[in-house]
Amino acid sequence: MSLFLNAIECNWSLHSAGDWISTEWEIYYDHTYVTKVSFVPKYDRETHQKINVAPIINAGKLDDKTFSDLEKLLKTKEWRDPNLNIRAYDGVAWKIDYYSTDGNILNSSGKLGYIYGEKLLEDIVKVLSEMQKPYGAPACVKVEKQ
């Protein structure tokens, strides 16, 4: 089973015990996928112990149309607009990698970071959001063309 896409969404906003911290998508060439949603541990004030919050793990299979739509987006050569200047202070950050069947990265969003205003990356995220609803986080963002 070859990995087709790996995407990570991280909460860069302030968070407290029990809040959502990240979601990871792994999609394979056979159309199967696994999503994992992670949370900040809770804290028991009486015992002064951290209580781990179990991640939510979902698995399934993408239909042919959704897989095809996603593949068309991923095959686009330029994922980022070099003329965008994104200034954000919180919200969510993404890292998205698209793989060949032999395991090499064909395209990547780069290091974990903001994608606000990046139309193609936002379109990829829309497809992923249909598989696992994102938790999201409030953001203070300014996107400008240079």
Keywords:
single chain, 146 residues, alpha+beta, Mago nashi protein, six-stranded antiparallel β-sheet, two-stranded antiparallel ribbon, 2 helices
Structure notes:
By secondary structure, the protein is α+β, with helices and mostly antiparallel strands. It contains 2 helices and 10 strands; from the N terminus they run ββββββαβββαβ. The strands form 3 sheets. Strands 6-3-2-1-8-9 form a 6-stranded antiparallel β-sheet, covered by helices on one side. Strands 4-5 form a two-stranded antiparallel sheet. It has a single domain (3-145), classed as Mago nashi protein (2-Layer Sandwich). Helix content is 16%, strand content 41%. It is globular, with a radius of gyration of 17 Å. The longest helix has 13 residues, at 119-131. It has helices at 64-74, 119-131; strands at residues 3-11, 20-28, 32-39, 42-44, 49-51, 56-61, 84-88, 92-99, 105-108, 141-145.
Explain the layout of strands and helices.
Elements: E1 3-11, E2 20-28, E3 32-39, E4 42-44, E5 49-51, E6 56-61, H1 64-74, E7 84-88, E8 92-99, E9 105-108, H2 119-131, E10 141-145
Antiparallel strand pairs: 1-2, 1-8, 2-3, 3-6, 4-5, 7-10, 8-9
Helix pairs in contact: 1-2
